[in-house]
Specification:
Blueprint lengths: L5 H18 L9 E2 L2 E2 L3 H29 L20 H18 L5 H29 L9 H7 L3 H21 L10 H4 L1
Antiparallel strand pairs: 1-2
Helix pairs in contact: 1-2, 2-3, 2-4, 2-6, 3-4, 4-6
Length: about 200
């Protein structure tokens, strides 16, 4: 395993902080809950992590974010944290951020460019939705208290309200990452960031 550089550790910490902020945007807009699912900016930052940091460092950032929350730091949605979060139906989305960043990073590690960035961002968002929603469905079926009449279709209907937001933000993340790749990330310590990861 390649050694983490100081810049890698700094960026991992930065994205952990961004994920915590994105997770708790509902603290200033408490109405952003649908079927118990908080509408957050976590997907945006997970997508951005994969695009900017690459597969290795991006997924490490998401793993660290998950571990920080599991040890009790309130970085998850609604300022929650601790091992009990594992039993929540929405924990699958937290796990999915690792896959999202890794898959996106793999897609853009070797061949950056706006078109690739947009496709990778949307693929990563789809992975986030598929993994998280299916986890939520099985959680409600096997260990969480499901709402009356809960079905697989209902689980996906809950994901409709945040979908347009996440599509738009994923595309914006791709545009931002592409712009950063041509400016900030091509200079100084950032140069070849993804290839070094």
């Amino acid at each position: 395993m390649k050694k983490l550089r100081a810049i890698d550790i700094t960026l991992v910490g930065m994205f952990v902080a961004l994920m915590a902020i994105g997770a708790n945007i509902t603290s200033i807009a408490p109405f952003l809950h649908v079927g118990g699912v908080p509408i957050t900016l976590q997907t945006f930052f997970a997508v951005l992590a994969g695009l900017i940091l690459g597969s290795r460092i991006g997924s490490i950032a998401m793993i660290v974010y998950m571990l920080v929350g599991l040890v009790g730091v309130p970085v998850f949605a609604d300022f929650s944290g601790g091992l009990g979060v594992i039993l929540k139906p929405t924990f699958g989305f937290i796990v999915s951020y690792i896959l999202t960043a890794f898959i996106i990073g793999k897609m853009v590690d070797k061949k950056p460019g706006l078109a690739i960035y947009i496709v990778a961002a949307l693929v990563g968002m789809a992975v986030n939705y598929l993994f998280g929603t299916n986890w939520m469905y099985f959680a409600f079926k096997f260990w969480a208290a499901a709402p009356a009449g809960f079905t697989y279709k209902m689980a996906w209907l809950w994901m409709v309200p945040p979908l347009p937001k996440d599509i738009i933000l994923s595309i914006l993340a791709a545009i931002l990452a592409n712009r950063l790749e041509k400016t900030v990330l091509s200079k100084g310590q950032f140069k070849n960031l993804k290839r070094a990861s």
